[in-house]
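Ticket reopened. Same input as before:
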Amino acid sequence: MTEVTLSKVVKKYGQHQAVHGIDLDIQDGEFVVLVGPSGCGKSTTLRMIAGLEDISGGDVTIGGRVVNDLPPRERNISMVFQNYALYPHMTVRENLGFSLKIAKRPEQEIVKAVDEAAGILGLDELMDRKPAALSGGQRQRVAMGRAIVRHPDVFLFDEPLSNLDAKLRTQMRVEIKKLHQKVESTIIYVTHDQVEAMTLADRIVLMRDGHIVQVGTPLELFNRPVDTFVATFIGSPPMNLVDGVVQGETIVLNGSISVPLPVTAGPLTNGQAVKFGFRADNLMPIGHAVEEEGAVHELDLSVTLTEPLGTETLLFTNLAGVEVQAKMFNPRPVTPGEQLQFRLMLDKCHVFDAKSGQAVRG
Amino acid sequence: MTRRRLPEWLVLLLPAIIVIAAVVLIPLLFSLYSSFTPYKLTRPSTLWKWVGTYNYEKILSDAKFWAAFGRTVLFLTIVLNVELLLGLGIALMMNKVTWGQRTLRTILMFPMMFSPILVGFQFKFIFNDNIGLVNNALQSMGFNVALPWLVDGKLAMFSIMFAEIWMSTSVFAILILAGLFAMPRDPLEAAKVDGCTPWQSFRHITLPFLMPFIYIAMTIRSLDVARAYDIVQIMTGGGPARRTELLWTLMSRTGYVDARMGLANAMGYVSILLSILFTIYFFRKLSAARAELGMAG
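Engineering reply: fixed in the latest deploy. New output:
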């Protein structure tokens, strides 16, 4: 059983504090993704778990054991690095078997473990090549193979896909997910790409400036963002946000257009400055919308720009002076300047306090 | 009628060809030719007397030559290995220094800035059996000895090696340090996670990565040390009684003191084999080490 626990973990570089006392419980076998913009402390946190960075304060425990002062080799973890970090002078086979060789395991056991890992990742053809003779995707698979031969308690992935091209990234993402289903180990995965986070994670930990902003399943973060940062970070395209003021049962957007208050919104005072948020999926032109239950508000808007994506087209339009994006399903060609009638799905809208950015939810 | 013109490539290369011919090719051919004559500087007419391979036969059966040859090989082996070990150690320590590393790096190069002649004089003084620093230090520490540093054959070789190593260890240190700077950090971290102790990381990751740099330093220094002359000439002059005679002191003695230039040139051609062998050996090693790292080509 390998739970990983972080309690009040702090990282300081001299005066600069990179991680501000974060708490996190990771269950055995869970796939947790640390995500956030660059410089948010996610990689630092991962490297503290790995033992590659000293812990300035708080405790990290792996399987119930405080590991703060243990070197990486005594933590029984494996790590996959962004730049693969393969040993350039060793063949694929030697790379895979290196950790077992260092641990002085018997030769047969090494061969067996290496062949097994190679089988899982489809490396059999490449065993006698050097890393320099491999493509990016192959190198990444060797790096993953090197991690799995040891049957570690915890896998750590540090932005493993960011050096791959888009197509390969999608492919490797699936392989990582399959790998997790096979090995059933705890995985902690760092990325700045919210799509990776959404698709891979059992739970997402969203970080900013060394703090954890929100922890939850991908759908929790998508549907119930705690603040505007989460709302705009998770989901593509990012959530539309328009400034507004509460007036009775409506929100007046930028002093021009008023929309009814969503029923999901929590207690608001009259005259409170808010940000009104909704996703492109919830603003659809009539006739090209996904039929959904719930309250609807209709708006006439003119399209300024279109981005056809095939099954849908992103429409850029102007709502109360702010550029917002809408989605057109079963699209037809739209020319910029065209006036369309839109349905806004009010039940899926969010209201955030303008000052704190926190969601106001009932 | 058109005039025959030299092909363009030849015209363009001609300046380079002329310069190389003047400074390299002609002297080389001349010295090669003279090694087949009993050419003596004091009797120029001997240059026109062809004696075939007489000089070479004489060298090959000359115990003094082979003694100098063997001593040079020994000198090379010891000096290169000690310099490698010290240079590697210094580079590894320098790599850990976080504050004032630039300054240290500059200071490290100081010995290389001195003329070998001056280094020779300096160590001649340090190892002098009467007024030298070493003996004075020994005596003031209570050892009532006056070691004949530059007189005893073995001690004199040691003293010369010491001077040579003092002067040139930084060549290794600098090149290996450059290697350490160029080394990616990720594999080392991966090794840590894979369970390596610091020594295992060094042995299995750092050292293989440094090998090309070490062989480059080896190649440069083997050529350098194989023509060791100035320090030896100043400190002992190859003496006393030829106990520290290396190839180049022997050659210069033969050529300029005994004025037997033909013989000296023949020695030069034999001893150049030594340099060529060492260079080929280290270049092979270098290519192999580079291929190991996937840097071949």
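Chain A touches chain B through 29 residues (CB under 8 Å). Helices of chain A lie at 42-50, 92-102, 107-121, 136-148, 166-183, 194-200, 218-223, 228-233. Please confirm and we'll close it.
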